[in-house]
């Protein structure tokens, strides 16, 4: 497939790596030993969103986090490369045949799509604040609203609008989460809002796959998240055969940053059931 790891980026603790994939590279890091766990960040974020979880997970698992294509230190979007294809290429490059996947928002969508399209590569999925490609929203989807603002008013205006969207309202009373959110959005390259760059392929509709999913699923959501994401969490919990759901009270979209200890503990308990 043409992937090659950088010299010295083996399984050593806190090893940073670039993984070369067709039409680009993915930047990331890994730490720890044991069953592989891959952490997948959300839209407008980067792998640093997993700072609260990464060290604790690495004590018992081979833990990998990476920047999606078009985010963080990874390469530009490519018109013929989607995030699930990149994830499989990453697993191949790291010598991982099967992994636990944990994602938030866009990252959860990618984990869900990987479990649907490549079931032999996925042990479990943890879906935090998930969307559901192909599911009809009753209100505008927040990322699409942000893209429309960028088209009308420019990228900096869209970033300001995005930070103040109700999806992140719960962080306003949580200084640590708000600081991390603000820093990530400031770093966000916003390639997805640049009409001069190619658009990456969208994830396929997944609604029809849910009853056939084999991977056990943990679905986590915030009681203060916007209605669309709360509704989707309920759909996933009902339709995925082996699914459990937990809702975090007084918490919004950024569960792992708003309630880091509670989120990490819940994830670790779930993973321990499948070692």
UniProtKB/TrEMBL annotation:
GO terms for cellular component: membrane. One of its GO terms (molecular function) is hydrolase activity. Residues 36-260 form the AB hydrolase-1 domain. Keywords: Hydrolase. Pfam families: Abhydrolase_1. PANTHER family: AB HYDROLASE SUPERFAMILY PROTEIN YCLE (PTHR43798:SF31), MONOACYLGLYCEROL LIPASE (PTHR43798). This is Alpha/beta fold hydrolase. It comes from Trebonia kvetii. The lineage of its organism: Bacteria, Bacillati, Actinomycetota, Actinomycetes, Streptosporangiales.
């Amino acid at each position: 497939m043409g992937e090659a790891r950088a010299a010295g980026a083996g399984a050593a603790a806190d090893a940073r790596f670039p993984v070369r994939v067709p039409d680009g590279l993915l930047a990331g890091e890994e730490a720890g030993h044991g069953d592989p766990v891959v952490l997948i960040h959300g839209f407008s974020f980067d792998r640093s969103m997993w700072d609260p979880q990464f060290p604790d997970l690495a004590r018992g698992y081979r833990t990998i986090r990476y920047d999606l294509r078009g985010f963080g230190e990874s390469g530009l979007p490519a018109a013929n490369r989607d995030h699930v294809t990149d994830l499989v290429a990453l697993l191949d490059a790291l010598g991982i045949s099967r992994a636990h996947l944990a994602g938030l928002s866009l990252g959860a969508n990618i984990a869900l799509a990987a479990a649907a399209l490549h079931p032999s590569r996925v042990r479990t999925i943890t879906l935090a604040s998930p969307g559901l490609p192909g599911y009809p929203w009753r209100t505008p989807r927040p990322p699409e609203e942000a893209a429309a603002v960028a088209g009308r008013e420019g990228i900096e205006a869209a970033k300001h609008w995005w930070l103040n969207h109700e999806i992140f309202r719960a962080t306003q009373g949580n200084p640590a989460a708000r600081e991390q959110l603000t820093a990530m959005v400031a770093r966000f390259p916003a390639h997805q809002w640049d009409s001069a760059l190619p658009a990456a392929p969208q994830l396929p509709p997944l609604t029809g796959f849910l009853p056939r999913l084999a991977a056990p699923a943990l679905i986590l959501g915030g009681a203060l998240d916007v209605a669309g994401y709360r509704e989707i969490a309920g759909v996933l919990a009902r339709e995925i055969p082996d699914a459990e759901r937990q809702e975090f009270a007084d918490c919004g979209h950024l569960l792992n940053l708003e309630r880091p200890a509670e989120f990490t503990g819940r994830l670790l308990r779930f993973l321990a059931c499948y070692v």
